[in-house]
Design goal:
mainly alpha; two-stranded antiparallel sheet; 19 helices; 2 strands; disordered N terminus
């Protein structure tokens, strides 16, 4: 027996982890990105819609994606700890008011901090209701949204309708203007990329336009948002703190048995969630419009949740979802029906590919429906020159529904997400 055990070769060393948790390797992801770039470039050339990959379009998309991404990141922190946060919209509303209220009186930097602080307050209210008192997470989130909306409307009438605020341009629905936060271009890069873009070369000009939009007129808050995405990924997936927090969202009873203070981690996660949502609201007040406006969030908290679900509760996929929603929103805001019309051709190709894939997988019913819809989209594209204005405004919401419907089969939420937890219930 000893000889046999001695002669047994040692187990092979584990291979390098080159495959992501989603099942795709880095090479596959790069191929998907390259294929998407080729497809968009081809659609730009065929349709003649140069705005699809222009520097201005990408820059606007980035600006619109940041608050959605921050709202989605806020939802990710909360739901990874097991707390569903439907109240993101209300926390963003609190952030817009805090940033506008303090920003015009002092400085935009203090307004930014106050926006985050107001969001944290909203997050803590949600944590008290759901973690301490066991209120249903959806009910608590809806209540936070209604409370935030009513509170900010009341405070706006209280602080912005008379005195210095009224003299500076305030009224019951908006604050006085706030000074701008600094923006910057990457030296030596923006101008060169803009020159390449103007040649309208296939693929090369498209890449130059995309990169130019990412490196031109950047806000400090945009850079901070990117850092928060990277930092959140590292903290939640590469540290003991993140492992404990995620265990609270997967199996809080098992986490408690290993000595994890589940209440503490849930409180921290929901407070961080509120702060990130407040930062997204502050971005809208200080960067997008330079003032607090009633109804400023426009449902971005809910779209952020959709982006989080699209990203399968992970920062990388969330960032892609936020970018997609921001891009579609920028198209309809900047260019109207003609550019959105070019998306019909892109949608036709995607539906055609999906239909072929479903037929290959023997899903004949789904494949047939996809091909029928693709044919209808192609006919729509060929017989029209632009999308009616009534449909243009719905573009980002239609994209949201399509993306969620296509990605629903691969989603895997935290197992204990939304469940009530009581200390010691596993004993």
């Amino acid at each position: 027996m000893t000889a046999t055990m001695t002669d047994t070769p040692p187990p092979a060393a584990p291979k390098a982890d080159t495959v992501t948790r989603s099942g795709r390797s880095l090479g596959q992801i790069l191929m998907i990105v390259a294929g998407a770039l080729l497809l968009v470039a081809a659609v730009r050339v065929i349709s003649g819609s140069d705005q699809l990959t222009s520097e201005g379009q990408v820059s606007a998309a980035l600006s619109l994606a940041v608050p959605i991404g921050l709202a989605g990141l806020a939802g990710l922190w909360s739901e990874r700890s097991g707390v569903v946060n439907i109240g993101l919209e209300g926390m963003m509303i609190l952030g817009t008011f805090g940033a506008g209220w303090i920003g015009w009186q002092s400085s935009p930097w203090l307004g930014l901090l106050c926006g985050v602080g107001f969001g944290v307050v909203g997050g803590l209210l949600h944590a008290v209701a759901t973690v301490t008192f066991g209120v249903d997470h959806i009910v608590s989130g809806v209540a936070i949204n209604l409370l935030a909306l009513g509170t900010t409307q009341y405070l706006a009438k209280l602080f912005f309708v008379d005195g210095k605020a009224a003299d500076a341009g305030g009224n019951p629905k908006q604050s006085p203007p706030v000074d701008s936060l600094p923006t910057f271009d990457v030296p030596g890069v923006s101008s060169g990329l803009h020159s390449i873009e103007n040649h309208h070369w296939f693929l090369i000009s498209d890449i130059a336009g995309i990169l130019g939009g990412l490196f031109t007129d950047l806000s400090i808050v945009t850079v901070l948002a990117v850092a928060l995405f990277v930092g959140s990924w590292w903290l939640l997936w590469r540290t003991a703190f993140g492992l404990r927090l995620r265990s609270c969202g997967e199996n809080p009873i098992a986490a408690e048995s290993l000595g994890v203070n589940v209440y503490k981690y849930k409180y921290m996660a929901v407070a961080v969630s509120g702060g990130l949502a407040g930062l997204g609201g502050a971005f809208l007040a200080l960067v997008t419009s330079h003032t607090y406006l009633e109804g400023q969030t426009g449902g971005r908290g809910y779209i952020g949740l959709a982006a989080m679900i699209f990203g399968n509760w992970r920062p990388g996929g969330l960032a892609m979802g936020a970018g997609l929603f921001g891009y579609s929103d920028a198209l309809q805001l900047r260019n109207g029906g003609e550019t959105v019309h070019a998306l019909l051709l892109l949608l036709f190709v995607l539906l055609l590919a999906m239909g072929g894939w479903k037929l290959y997988k023997k899903a004949h019913w789904q494949g047939g429906i996809s091909l029928m819809v693709a044919a209808g989209v192609l006919v729509w594209y060929l017989v029209t020159d632009e999308v009616p204005s009534d449909f243009v405004g719905a573009t980002p919401y239609v994209v949201t529904l399509l993306v969620l419907s296509l990605s629903a089969q691969r989603l895997r939420m935290p197992k204990a997400d939304g469940m009530r937890y009581r200390k010691g219930q596993g004993k």
